[in-house]
Hints:
The chain is built from eight helices and seven strands; from the N terminus they run E-H-E-H-E-H-E-H-E-H-E-H-H-E-H.
Amino acid sequence: MSEQTPLSRPVVLVTGAARRLGRAIALDLAQHGYDVAVHYRHSAAEALSTVAELQAAGAQARAFAADLSNEAACRALVPAVAAHFGRVDAVVNSASTFEYDDPASFGVASMEVHWRANTAPAVLLAQALYAHRGDGGGDGTGPAGCVVNLIDQKLWNPNPDYFSYTLSKAALQAATVMLAQALAPRLRVCGVAPGVTLVSGPMSASEFAAAHRMTPLQRSSTPDDIARAVRFLIESPAITGTTLLVDGGQHLSAQPRDVLYLAKNS
């Protein structure tokens, strides 16, 4: 395939697609008619494994390494994907840093780590996709490109655990709205807010199972639920500037601490 030959299938860049939730999103897209650019930072072997799975599902796929906390590397990612596939139709910002602090232990260094991983890259990649869609990747007469940001139901059900992480996701939620305003009609910008979806941090399997049941529906989100919601937004031309909460209703129940700590005591 020529590096400059556009493909008929739409192309989606999924950040953090080598593993966990990003991988599930990439696989769902591949199974529903999309070609996928698999972004990774350190997980090269897992990224190549994901690419092989996507190709087995009938998709064109390639892995792209980038440290998204590096501004130059982040800005170069969409052009690199466009150079390979000939087009980029959507970006899914799944890569994320999730490290513990609270108001007592907060420091600027922790906030900067989370900002550089969880907030700034989504803005830079939206800028890059906007430029691409106006420069041969889309002329404004066809469907708008789409950015989907992975946020967190925690913003609708706040507690002070994971303080810097939560602040970075709150900034991402605000950016989602402002970017939707600024980049229309060329781009749509949306969010998906998962609940307890995968084991994370110091959570054990039994604690995860308990936490997953702590919702009005007595089940939180699965990777398939999140992938389906992401694809729904990519395929919904009338939706922009809004976030889907996919969490089993977890945001409806006030929780004084992160669900990890509640599960430890259940």
